[in-house]
């Protein structure tokens, strides 16, 4: 699932207005974090994840682990926040950040 640059740009525009819904602490990735990440991606498709780790290399490794565990795609990472996307063909339009914001960002 490779997104075009135009799609990524539109998703970054939507992601700018989102707050992180999952936080990963220095304790690392637990079963609870993976479960919550999966639920958030299922419901919202596009989410922000906050990585409360001081070292840049540790954050990059944590993002790789999250992507592998969730099957999501990295849209953007800035500092301690990563924007992740995973398509859900049966998404609830009232919960999906993509569906809710698509008319507000020049996508229609």
Automatic annotation (TrEMBL):
Keywords: RNA-binding
Coiled-coil blocks: none
PROSITE patterns assigned: CRM
Domain CRM span(s) in chain numbering: 1-97
Name of the protein: RNA-binding protein
Organism ancestry: Bacteria, Pseudomonadati, Pseudomonadota, Gammaproteobacteria, Oceanospirillales
SUPFAM superfamilies, sorted: YhbY-like (SSF75471)
GO MF term set: RNA binding
């Amino acid at each position: 699932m490779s997104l075009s640059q135009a799609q990524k740009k539109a998703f970054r525009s939507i992601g700018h207005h989102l707050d992180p819904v999952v936080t990963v602490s220095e304790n690392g990735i637990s079963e609870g974090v993976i479960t919550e990440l999966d639920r958030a991606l299922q419901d919202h498709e596009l989410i922000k994840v906050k990585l409360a780790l001081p070292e840049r290399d540790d954050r990059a490794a944590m993002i790789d682990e999250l992507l592998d565990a969730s099957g999501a795609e990295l849209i953007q990472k800035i500092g301690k926040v990563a924007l992740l996307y995973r398509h859900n063909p049966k998404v609830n339009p009232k919960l999906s950040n993509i569906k809710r914001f698509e008319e507000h960002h020049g996508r229609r």
